[in-house]
């Protein structure tokens, strides 16, 4: 009978401020975000044990301190936006702020 280790070798991923880094890729999961793993504290380990699917690098299985597993999915470390997209985004933010300000005025 195959064990988890037979199917998914145990490795270690580095915990960085950008996410979990393993084998040239970045990963993240909801637990790491919720528990703020990516905000460093002095006593915090900067590595975590993971299980790896050698046939698929789109995800890793993160071994949690309670012995359970969670899936961390591969993320992109590239953020690229055109100047037009940036301006459009900023205008939408300003518009939302105006709408919120107007709603507060109406309620008074």
Tags for this model:
31% helix, six-stranded antiparallel β-barrel, 108 residues, 3 helices, coiled coil, alpha+beta
Structure class: alpha+beta
What is the topology, as strand order, of the major beta sheet?
A: 1-2-3-6-5-4
**Helicity level:** 25-40%
Strand count: 6
Could you spell the SSE succession in H and E letters?
HEEEHEEEH
The biggest beta sheet reads: 6 strands, antiparallel, barrel
Give the averaged pLDDT, no decimals: 84
User: Per DSSP, what share of the residues sits in E-state strands of 2 or more residues?
Assistant: 25-35%
Given the C-alpha coordinates, what overall shape results?
Answer: elongated
Keywords: Coiled coil
Coiled coil: 79-106
Task: Compose a concise summary of this entry.
The chain is of the alpha+beta class and 108 residues long. Helix content is 31%, strand content 31%. It has helices at residues 4-7, 30-34, 83-107; strands spanning 10-16, 19-22, 25-28, 47-52, 59-63, 69-75.
Could you characterize the architecture of this molecule?
Residues 79-106 form a coiled coil. By secondary structure, the protein is an alpha+beta fold. The protein has three helices and six strands. It has helices spanning 4-7, 30-34, 83-107, and strands spanning 10-16, 19-22, 25-28, 47-52, 59-63, 69-75. Strands 1-2-3-6-5-4 form a six-stranded antiparallel beta barrel. Strand 4 and strand 5 form a beta hairpin. The radius of gyration is 20 Å and the shape is elongated.
Task: Give the topology.
Elements: H1 4-7, E1 10-16, E2 19-22, E3 25-28, H2 30-34, E4 47-52, E5 59-63, E6 69-75, H3 83-107
Antiparallel strand pairs: 1-2, 1-4, 2-3, 3-6, 4-5, 5-6
């Amino acid at each position: 009978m195959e064990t988890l280790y037979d199917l998914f070798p145990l490795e270690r991923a580095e915990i960085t401020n950008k996410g979990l880094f393993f084998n040239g890729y970045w990963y993240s999961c909801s637990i790491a975000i919720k528990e703020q793993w990516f905000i460093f504290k002095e006593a915090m380990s900067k590595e975590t044990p993971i299980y790896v699917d050698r046939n698929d690098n789109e995800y890793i299985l993160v071994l949690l301190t309670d012995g359970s597993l969670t899936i961390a999915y591969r993320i992109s470390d590239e953020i690229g936006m055109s100047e037009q997209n940036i301006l459009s985004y900023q205008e939408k933010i300003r518009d939302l702020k105006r709408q919120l300000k107007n709603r507060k005025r109406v309620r008074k």
